[in-house]
Amino acid sequence: MSIPDDELRQRLEGDLTSSRIAELKVNPVTGNFDVGHLREVNRRIFQDLPSVGFSEVTPGEYRTPVQPGKDWLKCRVLDVTPGQFFVAYSKMDDAAQRRLESTLAQVQPDQLAQLGPKEFAHAVSKLYAELDYLHPFPDGNSRTLRSFTAQLAEKAGYVIEWDRFDADPQGRDRLYIARDLAVNKIAKPGIEHPSSIMRVVGSMDRLEGNRDLGDLLADVIRPSRSVDFEAMDREQALKKHPELKGAHAMLEASARYMESKAVDQDTAKSLLKTISAKLVERMNHGEVIQYDGREVKPADVSKSTQPPPNPTRDRGMDR
C-alpha cells in the first residue's frame, strides 16, 4: 500500500526538524533572547525544508499580517478530548511586532535565576503564553518556543522537560488546553469579528477548570543542579555546581554509616538509592542541601525530606 504524499511530507518535515532541534541542544543559538535570537531559532529548525520541496516555508521570517477587521483563529482537535476548539492569535501587524520586541526586551536570565522553581515556572508560562499569542511565524511556533524557552531556562539554572508532555496523548492534551486557555485570555479583548468571539469564548467555557499553564509547567521544571546530581558523577557535578557539595557529602556520610553498621550490600544500595531520591526531591523544591559534618543515619535523611516553607535559591548559582 502506497503512502500518501502529504504523509510522506509530514514524515520528512518531522525528521528534518527533529534533527535540527536536537542539534540546538548541543549547539544553541548565541544571543540575548531578543527578537533576533527567536528568529534564528526558527530559522535553524526549519532551514532544510525549502531545499527539499517545502517552498512555502520561510525559515526565520514573520508570517503575513492579518488584514484589519479580520481575526486569525486556529481550530484545534485534541487527541482524547472530544470536539473542536478554537484559539486566537495576534494579527502580527506592526503593533504586534513592536509588542514582540518589547516583550523580549524585558527578558533577563539573571533575574529569572533568582526565582524559586514555582515562581520561575509561572514567569516562563507568562512569557510562553505571550509569545504564543503573538505567534510570529507561519508554522512551527510551538517547536520554536520550546527550544527558545529551554535555552532560556538553562541560562537561568533550570531544565524544562518538555518531552514529558509527549509521553502520552493525555499529557499532550493537558499542555495544549492550558496553553490555549492562556493564549485566548490574552487574545480575547482584541478579537474583532462576532463569530470569532463566539468560537473563542465557547472554547474557553468548555475547557475552563483545567490546570493553569504555570502550575502545569511547574511539574516539568527542575533546577539544573538537581538534574545533574542524578545524571553526572560526583566530580562532574561538583565542577558544574559547587553547591552540590552538601548533597554529595550527605550521601557519602550515609554510605559510611551503613558500612560501619555492616549493612549488607544489597540493602545499603537500596537505601542509598532512596536517600538520593529524597535529596533530589528537596532540591527540586529549590533547596540547597547543607551538611555540617555530623554522622548521618539513613533515617535522619528521610525525616528531613520536606522542603522548607519558602525555599530560596542562592544568588550566583546555576548560571
Question: Explain this structure to me?
Answer:
The chain is mainly α and 319 residues long. The protein has two domains: 156 residues, Fic-like fold, CATH 1.10.3290; 80 residues, no CATH class. Helix content is 56%, strand content 6%. The protein contains 14 helices and four strands. The strands form two sheets. It has a two-stranded antiparallel sheet with strand order 1-2. A two-stranded antiparallel ribbon has the order 3-4. A hairpin with a 6-residue loop joins strand 1 and strand 2. The termini are far apart.
Spatial sequence of strands, sheet with the most strands = 1-2
What can be said about the biggest beta sheet? 2 strands, antiparallel
Number of strands: 4
Tally of contiguous helical segments: 14
Gyration radius over CA: 23 Å
What is the CATH topology assignment of the largest domain? Answer: Fic-like fold
Give the H and E element order. Answer: HHEEHHHHEHHHEHHHHH
Q: What overall geometry do the principal axes of the alpha carbons give?
A: elongated
Report strand %.
5-15%
Low-pLDDT ranges: 305-319
Distance between the termini: 53 Å
Helix content: 55-70%
Say what oligomer this is: single chain
Please tell me the total number of domains. Answer: 2
CATH class value of the largest domain:
Mainly Alpha
Structural class: mainly alpha
CATH architecture of the largest domain: Orthogonal Bundle
- Give average pLDDT, whole number: 91
Short summary of the structure?
The protein is mainly alpha-helical and 319 residues long. It has helices at 5-26, 35-46, 94-105, 109-112, 117-134, 141-155, 169-187, 194-207, 213-218, 224-231, 234-240, 245-260, 265-284, 298-303; strands at residues 72-77, 84-89, 158-160, 221-223.
